[in-house]
Amino acid sequence: MKMKVVSLFCGCGGMDLGLLGGFDFLGRYYHKLPYEIVKAVDNDMYCTRIYNDNFDTKCDVADVRVLDTVSLPDFDLLIGGFPCQSFSISAQNPPRLGYKDERGKLFFEMVRILKEKQPKAFIAENVKGLLSANKGMAFPMIVKEFENAGYHIAYKLLSSYDYGVPQKRERVLIVGFRDKEQFENFEFPKSAKTKHILKEVLDLAADNEEKWYFSDKAVEGMMNVREKMNKGRIQDPELPCNTISSHLAKVSLNSTDPVLFVNGRYRRLTPKEAARIQSFPDTFKISSVSEARQYKAIGNAVPPVMMWYIANSVANALKCQ
Ligand SMILES: C[S@@+](CC[C@H](N)C(=O)[O-])C[C@H]1O[C@@H](n2cnc3c(N)ncnc32)[C@H](O)[C@@H]1O
After folding, report:
1. Domain that holds residue 158
2. Atom of ligand 1 nearest to the CA of 16
3. 252-304 confidence digits (pLDDT tens)
4. Are residues 223 and 167 in the same domain?
5. Integer CA distances (angstroms), 43 to 49, 61, 62, 69, 279, in order
6. Based on the domain organization, do 236 and 141 belong to the same domain?
7. Catalytic site includes residue 47
8. For ligand 1, what atom is nearest to the CA of residue 84?
9. Three-state SS at 283
10. Count of domains in the chain?
11. What distance in Å separates the CA atoms of residue 6 and residue 27, rounded to the nearest whole number?
12. Residue 317 above 70 pLDDT?
């Protein structure tokens, strides 16, 4: 029996792809999982265009804050990587506002829908900074809110590298079950046996395309301030890639985003490489929006392969497979 799923803040669908399964990545088939998406919502018309190119259920371009629960179909599982900018340690300007910030409040939307619809379970994802936001005060409050909505809560900081993704990306996963027995059945997934590194997903053809290289001026600018800031983060292809983010779209070298060093020159990752670093299969279509929008959507996504492991563990606990 398939569990019906509502996906909030679905973005381009990294979480959703992992949840559904049925795709190949680096020589392994991630089998289909017993879920079907009955509703997906995001307010960004560009990432949702990517979503709609890849999923049968089309995404509503809408603000979750005005989502009327009465209009929602019945469902068993709520998923959402609630927007994380305000919880992120890297968001320094303005300084970390955590849940006091307007965007930080969006997790209350998940709580509202859980309270009103009482699905069997939920999966929420967020940045590592959530654990320490507001001097460590935000996270216990978030857990309490989920508990008050009627759920038994498990959470863990996971690294995508441990789950077959060629990237070190640490994310907090919060899983809740209404039923105590199902909660007690749940275990976070064990690490995958096979680990992957950056080299496996690089597109060597891009080495020959001038457009991916940073200009001499951009490199010079970076060199001048390199000591002060953690700039020009050259990746070792023999290791997993550092965390990629939506900032990859920027053409400057003034960030902490991963870059490649090819034949003595700095080159950016292509959108295709960024998607592979996030464990999207090459069959995932991203080209209907500009490259800048592709980087943004891909950089924001939950790695599908990591999500597959979590969704599989949740399905086991719900005994629906
Ligand atoms: C971290 S991304 C989610 C990525 C997605 N889970 C994935 O795996 O691809 C957060 C998303 O929340 C969306 N968002 C932000 N505020 C929103 C709002 N008020 N209503 C609906 N979506 C919103 C953003 O457009 C963004 O796509």
Report:
1. 3-191+295-318
2. 8
3. 676 678 999 999 999 999 999 999 999 999 999 999 999 999 999 999 999 99
4. no
5. 11, 5, 5, 17, 24
6. no
7. no
8. 1
9. coil
10. 2
11. 30
12. yes
